[in-house]
Structure formats: structure tokens, C-alpha cells
Design goal:
Low-confidence stretches: none
Structural class: mainly beta
Number of helices: 0
Strand content: over 45%
Shape: elongated
Largest sheet: 7 strands, antiparallel
Distance between the termini: 38 Å
Helix content: under 10%
Strand order of the largest sheet: 1-2-3-4-5-6-7
Radius of gyration: 23 Å
Mean pLDDT: 85
């Protein structure tokens, strides 16, 4: 198995808190079948575009117990769009015959919004996954996930 994730990538955060990034990922897995003399290859290529913006000292309007405004934390808003093309093929070594047995083209859109305070992490997420298969026995598939996730960390967040 070989995996280059990312093979080529760049992530940039600018002075005006804008973020963007590009990635090119490539992986391949080979499986040798000695009993039936086959070589199975699964290869994937993925392109990822990432955009984001950081809002510094963001507050949700919560006051502390003394009535004064608490210091806000950074709100990081990110969006990822990825296109992945995968293919599985089986080659008979003795006959030198290869055929495609599976694979799919996948488009994935992720939007997330999180990082409210040091101990409280709120995350709003939206993920859409659309896939089109390379073999005729499988139907196109689309999945949408959305929701809110809250994580509260008790105690000191520092190290030892």
C-alpha cells in the first residue's frame, strides 16, 4: 500500500484572516492472490480545495458572573470541496487480462463552524457526499449529514 496524502499541498492564512488551501492526494493498494493468480489494484486520486475565515475574539453575548463581558475566542469557519476518483481492477497474471471491477467518482462538500471558548467547543456541520459508480450494477448515491455537536472539557486544559 502506498499513500501520498498530500502528494502536493499548500495551506495559506493571510493577514486579513482569510485561509485557503489546495491538496492533491494519491494512493494505491495492490493485493497479490497466489491461489487464483490475480493482482488486484485499487487506485484513488483526490483533489481538495479549502476556503476559510477566522473571526478573532468572537463572543456569543454571554456575560460572566460579575456582569462584565468575557474575552472572546476565535471562530474558525472552513469549507472543503473534494473530488475523488477511484478504480478497482483485477488482472489475471497468467492470461495478462485486466478488467475493471469497481470504482466511483465522489464529490464531498464539508462546511464547519466551531471553536467558541477554551473549554466549550461548538461545531455546526454540513456534509454532502455524491458518488457515481463506474460499474453498471450500482446506482448513484447522495448522502447529506448536518447537525450541531457540543464538546465541553472539564478541568484544566493545560499539560502536566
Amino acid at each position: 500500500m502506498e499513500s501520498f496524502s498530500p502528494l502536493i499541498g499548500i495551506d495559506v492564512t493571510m493577514r486579513n484572516n482569510m485561509q485557503f488551501g489546495l491538496q492533491y492526494n494519491k494512493n494505491r493498494m495492490l493485493l497479490l492472490g497466489l491461489v487464483n493468480h490475480t493482482l488486484t489494484e485499487e487506485a484513488n486520486t483526490e483533489y481538495v480545495v479549502r476556503l476559510g475565515y477566522i473571526i478573532r475574539n468572537f463572543r456569543l453575548g454571554m456575560d460572566n458572573s460579575r456582569g462584565s463581558r468575557s474575552k472572546g475566542s476565535d471562530l474558525n469557519i472552513r469549507g472543503d470541496i473534494s473530488l475523488r476518483d477511484g478504480q478497482t481492477s483485477i488482472m489475471n497474471i497468467l492470461l495478462n487480462d485486466s478488467q475493471v471491477t469497481g470504482g466511483q467518482k465522489v464529490m464531498n462538500i464539508k462546511l464547519s463552524d466551531y471553536n467558541v471558548s477554551e473549554n466549550l467547543n461548538l461545531r455546526l456541520f454540513y456534509e454532502q457526499l455524491t458518488s457515481k459508480y463506474k460499474i453498471s450494477t450500482a446506482f448513484p448515491l447522495s448522502t447529506i449529514r448536518a447537525g450541531i455537536s457540543a464538546t465541553f472539557t472539564f478541568g484544566d486544559s493545560g499539560g502536566f
